[in-house]
Amino acid sequence: MAAQVRWSFDLMNYRVAQAVFFTLTLFGTATTSAQPSTTDQVRLLFTGDILLSRGVERELQHRRRSPWIACQRLFHDVDWVGGNFEGAIGPASQCVTSAGPCFAARESDVELLKNAGFRALTTENNHAGDLGSSGRKQSRLAFQHAGLLAVDFENSPQFIELAKFEIALVAITTIPAADGRVQEVPSEVVLEKLRLARLRANIVVVSIHWGNELVPWPSSTQRKQAAWLVEHGADLVLGHHPHVLQRPECIAGSPVFFSLGNHVFDQANPRTKEGLIADCRLRQGRLHCQGIRTQTSPGTSVPRVLSPGRDTTPDLAGCAPEIKKRSDN
User: Fold this and answer.
1) Taking Cα atoms as reference points, which of 158, 182, 187, 180 lies closest to residue 172?
2) CB 128 within 8 Å of CB 53
3) Does the bond joining 242 to the residue before it have cis omega, within 30 degrees of 0?
4) What is the CATH number of domain 41-316?
5) CA 182 to CA 61: how far, in whole Å?
6) Tens of pLDDT along the chain (329 residues)?
7) Sheet holding 249-251, edge to edge
8) Structural contact between residues 257 and 218, judged by C-beta atoms closer than 8 angstroms
9) Other beta carbons within 10 Å of 45
10) Which residues are registered as beta bridge partners of 275?
11) pTM for this model (two decimals)
12) Among candidates 323, 37, 329, 279, which has minimal Cα distance to 168?
């Protein structure tokens, strides 16, 4: 755990933050290609972990169909879709020697994400460095060539403009990658990302890789980290890494999805075949989120949507943070 974070934010730090903010305004803004909403409501979906290597790659080569064939109608009915991509784009020969598996994915498969309806992928997790620094660069370029936004900690926050709203997306991993990259929560560097996001955005979304694999409940550390993130600007927290569902909760008035589980993955454990899509809507001045369950049958990595019109997350009822005015308004 990081040393206690300094809470002071003096004039010098503020001026530095302003300078970085204007740099991000010029070079770091991402505008989605989704059609602008014709109403005052914007709908966003966030999925769990996505794998395009190993067993998923073999299934793609064998079946020659998109893993999102059962999700495309849902995805194309909303304004924006994001998810968490596990791995790096490039040849397996570049794998960094480590104790864990290496998720090297083919660039040709990235187009499947675009065609399915995804607009952005968070790429800050324990497998993002599987191919080293060159793999991180290759992944960014591959997503860029496909018209997708890749969000890691280094380029966070990224700003997504939808209708009259600006959404900031910050990506964090507390689980070290193969190349050693990791962030600490709380920490001064994460705090600065949240401050920059808050300067401009109406809503701040944090995607975080944390917790323990295959454990269906959040740890005490996750709970403390979630409370800290919300306290310092996060309106919505999206958790990844356990590969199983962890029940979402309302923390200090903000939705926290501790773990969305797997979305497209090749694990065989029955619990890893259950996923959750965070279904969030910006309407009437507030952010409203619920969950859409997905199920993947044994022997496949293709998820299907279960009861998309029914709220499966009652703990989030009434958990609706206010859509804040931007600091530049």
Assistant:
1) 182
2) no
3) no
4) 3.60.21.10
5) 33
6) 443 333 333 333 433 344 443 334 333 444 443 444 445 799 999 999 999 999 999 999 999 999 999 999 999 999 999 999 999 999 999 999 876 899 999 999 999 999 999 999 999 999 999 999 999 999 999 999 999 999 999 999 999 999 999 999 999 999 999 999 999 999 999 999 999 999 999 999 999 999 999 999 999 999 999 999 999 999 999 999 999 999 999 999 999 999 999 999 999 999 999 999 999 999 999 999 999 999 999 999 999 999 777 677 888 989 999 999 876 54
7) 29-30, 158-162, 165-173, 203-209, 236-240, 254-257, 249-251
8) no
9) 22
10) 261, 294
11) 0.88
12) 323
> Is residue 51 within a helix (H) or strand (E), and if so which, with residue range?
strand 42-51
Distance CA 105, CA 100 (A): 16
CA dihedral 34, 308, 202, 258 (to 10 degrees): -120
d(CA 147, CA 114): 7
What Rg, from alpha-carbon coordinates, does the chain have?
A: 19
CA distances from residue 168 to 30, 222, 317 in whole angstroms, order as listed: 10, 21, 23
- Residues ≥6 apart with Cβ < 8 Å to 284: 40
